[in-house]
Amino acid sequence: MKTYKLTAYKPDGELIIEESFGAENDEAAKEKGRVLIDEKGLADKTHRLASPMGKLLLFHS
Fold this sequence. Notes:
A hairpin with a 5-residue loop joins strand 3 and strand 4. The longest helix has 14 residues, at 26-39. The radius of gyration is 11 Å and the shape is globular. The chain has one domain (2-60). Strands 2-1-3-4 form a four-stranded antiparallel sheet, with helices on one face. Helix content is 23%, strand content 44%. The chain has 61 residues and is α+β, with helices and mostly antiparallel strands.
């Protein structure tokens, strides 16, 4: 299992959330990341989901 990191920021750059979670692969991490974004009400905030290798899987600004 790989560790992925979800981060979200306020418009002024202040960190809202930084959360890590495990997933088997990038596709599973994207699905889990979308669920977390919706659950935490972050869809309209700047957010990103990064793989362990630094690849951006989800990004919204």
